[in-house]
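re the bet — no i am not wrong, look at it urself. input seq straight from the record:
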Amino acid sequence: MLGANPLISVTPGLMIWTIVCFLIALWVLKRYAFGPIQKLIDERRERIRQALDEADHARAEARQLLEEHRKLIGQAKSDAEGILTEARKVAEANSRRMREETEADRQRRLEDIRRQIEAETRKALEQIRAEVADLSLIAAEKVTRRSLDDADHRRLIEEAVGELDFSVLEKVD
């Protein structure tokens, strides 16, 4: 066999040495290469698992925060509506109180004006009575051509005033 390839031919000594070298290489690789490589792969797998767990935890926390945020927004809206309702009630109460105070002030002023009118009316009637009395005295003196004493003055004044009808003047509305 001239054409036979020496690499294909079976040589038992070479085979044994090849297997021994292969086993030594396998042992060295397993001891110094596969172990640390597998350890690195396991560590990386653990870091990835932890990162995924943290991401799941962060997602759950984000959902919880979103739900709390929505609750707070709902509560804030409810509080705002309550505040608006209370503000409307206070505004209505203030408006009603202002109307009542304005009406009470108006009534008080009207009553003051009525009292002033009545006082002025009484004052004017007293002045009219005094003027009538003075005119009566002057007319009586001219008629009798003499001066009257105090008793005559009073009697004449009372008669003149008694004859006058002041009720028409007192009925001022």
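see?? Residues 101 and 107 are 10 Å apart (CA to CA). told u. also Helices lie at 12-144, 150-163, 167-170. so pay up
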